[in-house]
Structure prediction request, 118 residues.
Amino acid sequence: MAKIQRTGAYLDIVLTPLEKLAALHRDIRVPLASVTAINVVERPLDEVQGFRAPGLHIPSRTKIGTWRASGRRTFAVARARQAAVRIDLDEGKYHTLIVSVPDAAAVAEDIRTVPAKR
Prediction:
C-alpha cells in the first residue's frame, strides 16, 4: 500500500513494488510549496477522471497510474472502499494526486500542518 510522507520541504508518495509495476512509475516527490489543497475523499475511484496512460484499472476495485483529462494529469493509487487523500498542486508534472491510505484523515491533517506558502 502506498504511503504519503513529509521529507523536509517535500511530500513523497512511496509506492510498493507492485504499485510501481502497475503504474509504470517510480515514487513521486513534490515540493510542499506547490500544494494548494488537501482533502479526504471517501470514494476515490469516482475522483479519478479521464483516460489511463499508463496504469492499471480494475473496474470497481482499483485505479493505479496516470489519468489525463482536459489538459490535466492525475496520479492515482485509488482503491474501492478505502478513503484517500486528494492533493491538488499548482505546478509540476501532475495537477492532482489521489492516494488511498489506511488513515486518510490523519495523513491529510499531518500534511496540513505545513506552514503556508510565502
Summary: The chain has one domain: 3-113. The chain has a mean pLDDT of 93.
